[in-house]
Amino acid sequence: MSERPTQPDNTRIVRRLLLTVVGMFAFGFALVPLYNVFCDITGFNGRFTDGQAAANTKTVDTSRTINVQFITRVNKGMPWGFEPEVQSVRVHPGETKVINFFAKNLTGKNMVAQAIPSVAPGEASLYLNKVECFCFNQQPLAAGSDTAMPMQFYLDPEIPEHIHTVTLSYTMYDMTENAQPDALAALAQPVN
Amino acid sequence: MSIKLITALTAMIPMAAQARSQLNLPQGVTEISNRVYDLHMTIFYICCVIGLVVFGAMFWSMIRHRKSKGRKPATFHENVKVEILWTVVPFLILIGMAIPATSTLIAMEDTSEAELTVLVTGSQWKWHYRYLDSDVEYFSLLATQREQIENKFDKGENYLLEVDRPLVIPTDRKVRFLVTSDDVIHSWWVPDFAVKKDANPGFINEAWTKVDEPGIYRGQCAELCGKDHGFMPVVVIAKEPAEFDAWLAEQEQIAQREKEEEQRLLAMSMDMDELMELGERVYLGSCAACHQANGEGIPGVFPALKGSPMALNDMQGHINIVVNGKSGTSMQAFGNQLSLRELAAVITYERNAWGNDTGETVQAADVNAFINE
Amino acid sequence: MSTVVGEVDQHDDHHHHAPSGITRWLFTTNHKDIGSLYLWFSFIMFLVGGSMAMVIRAELFQPGLQLVDPHFFNQMTTVHGLIMVFGAVMPAFTGLANWMIPMMIGAPDMALPRMNNWSFWILPFAFSILLASLFMEGGGPAFGWTFYAPLSTTYSSDSTALFVFSVHIMGISSIMGAINVIVTIMNMRAPGMSYMKMPLFVWTWFITAFLLIAVMPVLAGAVTMVLTDKYFGTSFFDAAGGGDPVLFQHIFWFFGHPEVYIMILPSFGIVSAIIPAFSRKKLFGYASMVYATAAIAGLSFLVWAHHMFTTGMPVFAELFFMYCTMLISVPTGVKVFNWVATMWRGSISFETPMLFALAFVILFTIGGFSGLMLAITPVDFQYHDTYFVVAHFHYVLVSGAIFSIMAAAYYWLPKWTGHMYDEKLAKTHFWASLISVNVLFFPMHFAGLAGMPRRIPDYSIAFADINQIVSIGGFAFGLSQLIFLWVVIKCVKGGEKAPTKPWEGAEGLEWTVPSPAPYHTFDTPPEVK
Known about the structure:
By secondary structure, chain B is of the alpha+beta class. Helices cover 44% and strands 16% of the residues of chain B.
């Protein structure tokens, strides 16, 4: 029978275990981007990339009509008006639509906002393509002024048969404290 | 102490007797809730049978194979056949459970082709309902009196399960709920519909129901959402479709009338006594949960209003925070929850109660001017 | 690093007698001393966390608000959970590991004795910080032990910083403990003690230690993100900045579900030692026990989202997590069947350790059944966040983990103290605990099914009767644990002299050394055949 193992052995195991610990700590943070990728692929939680989609090249499927609903919400503590031009619109898969959203800054100071989208059912977010959207960027709005913000989208014609209604919600958050430089620059210009 | 306890105990007896004592999952009033109930019972019975076999064998050994009966221990400690058997059999039982579970789940998650959509928004600590495709929206707050909670009055039949304005939905129509939140995570739950969905701030979740029977159905917030998590019930009234349509049309008219009434009242001003009286009522209903009835708040969590510089000096700031709330805190925007009159009254109250004797009144017109400035 | 490793045979009190007084305990590197420190610490935490449970049960004794305000109630549920998980159950297991693993594998001590000292002595600081936060302005943590964002970030009081700091310290302590266990088991086994000859307690702890290494850092990551979200402007969990509060739950439960097994696997090892001893028969299916433990540990990484079915997941994800969760019941079932088969045709006697072990098997299995019910997604929508869940995890953790710790304490007390405990008093403790634990937790199933949400300070009058019964059970269970304290103190102070091997059917190296176990054991390794 052999002697008990010698000391260097301990050091090696400990070193490996500590590396694992550091690795797992990093993995905890790696879960953040991994989760985002996972959400993009699966439509998990109705989140989707704010990436700009190319214009539709597939044929419009006129045999189906899908009801697209719009919900606008403003985070508390943020005195803005925020409304869609219409509550809902009926579209054929593949058909491109432009919907205007109206925002009004009710305060006496310049503000910057960011709209955060969410789609229900989550699965539908995989087929909702936005060619142009105010949610891609922060939205600066001078004190008391208002604006119309366009959102151009189409539904991929491959959207599953069982989806008849798609709800698109935007929640407006106050980002004045964390505004991006270009949004601030836009505010610095005199408002006409 | 003990006398108090005994009185409390005796007081409980009649109350306990009148309470509908229920020990199982409700069967509910929808097709889905019935399927869920059946699934629950099936799995429960399977567990009972397995338990009976395992515990039976265990008790058999405990009774028959004891040392005090002079048993000599056997020596076996392995049996591959038996071990394979009790790995495979449970696996097959699991497959048997998974099949009905899967089909029920798929049916539950099919939100397509709904005839009515309601946006349900949770916030600390109330629910807000908005009927999409119509102008009707309102808050739904706990209606149980403070005095019942504090044991000063007898508790009513629906203690903590009653609200001022319940959600109304039609029977026999598929109703889709979009669930979201304004602050922390809440969870909208009606056991009779077998619907429980988390309200995540910034995101919308979907659920649906199709109620078979008209009636009043009660539930509660199911996700810890802060101090008054236990005090934000859900009450849903299911009405016959025709009755529901009439109700919705009436609500639209009422909403319209209220708007007009509001405009008319702008021209009138209220005196201090009127404002203070209404203000106290609104304060106790909407503000006292956090800022406390004595205006002292809870240090470190909810700021005191008594002696607060804003309540004493900064009237515009005060109107702003009440109307718009404060982001990143529990302070909500009351601008869309209270009427202009109520806002004016409660701000006046806060500026004059508990020794905050500013002597200033705020009128509905002032609040309106602020909002439209 | 080189300062803490590789000092097995070098620490200087090795051949001296232990110093006395407080310094003995402060500077000790002896695995038995550190084991005792852990065990006493965990018992104190058990009483502290238990008194918080008493506050909760007193408030819930009848409907209406009587004793505490809802904000304080939330602090009690939160800190009760944190203390019981990180302060009572986990340190108790680490204490048992410290005492028993070296003796079971024929090692003179733990592999890294100075780190061992550190890993214990940072714990009292962690819990002092946590408890002190209760006295801060705004109170202590009130967001539940699961600290879901944004309740724990944007909407929490400033004690959150202290909470995060104390969880970090607890995590570091657990990780150091786990490293020590792994190195000890890998390097310090006596000649001939191959892996497949190790007692199951050693095996289950070995696997638990790997789980700890894998998930405690993830918890550390989660609390760090909470801290930076609250104080440093990041938005991991804030939708406004592109984050997602549901992400928090994924990260937390990625830690949280393996954590559940961290708190139960060592119990399996304890019960697998006690049942054969008092059945006077070898453990049935040793190898399958090892494989089942490993299978449970492996599967525990694939089931986390069953805690979050109501957060709104796509159907395929719900199905995946449901199936994986159901699958866990197979290896768990194997374990239960093996214990029953061990008892079958044995020669059973019912000393207190055996009573607790048997109660463990039955009550843990009941907890397993409710766990299986909770795994079924469609019904979980009804059970989720109700008292049914509270009943489930208390069956698994109290009448599971804690009962197994009690069983272990009675089983090894003669070895630790050199005295037999008072059997009559111990049996009183057992029967009082058994009855009260069921009065306490069984009716909670009904409250949950009938619709009572968890973590509420006041409830509808329909739940009044059930809550009254539960509270009475709670007070009785709490008081019963004082009997345990009495038995232990009595046993430490004196009592019938314990022989080297007080239990007829017991097996293992720990029963080859005298009782009480000398300060140093196995300085020369035993031969294992």
